[in-house]
Amino acid sequence: MKTPTKSATVDVSKIWMSQKEAQKYLGVSKDWLKERRLNGILSYSMVGTTVFYIKSQIDNLIKDNAVTGVANFKRATII
Length: 79
Description:
This protein is of the alpha+beta class. It is built from three helices and three strands, in the order E-H-H-E-E-H. It has one domain. Helices cover 34% and strands 15% of the residues.
């Protein structure tokens, strides 16, 4: 059985992403983003009650947590 993958379309020319855009882009909850924000992992800006994140930092978060190397895939089950 194939696990469905999440995907989001984001304007790559954007510098900032709203919280909703960031949630959709990463496939995470509002609380997950808030935790990273409060822990200083992601910088943010607030305009009124709307939170914005720097897209390049979100992209770096993805890159920094990339799984690489054959050893990391030994636990994967091939169907």
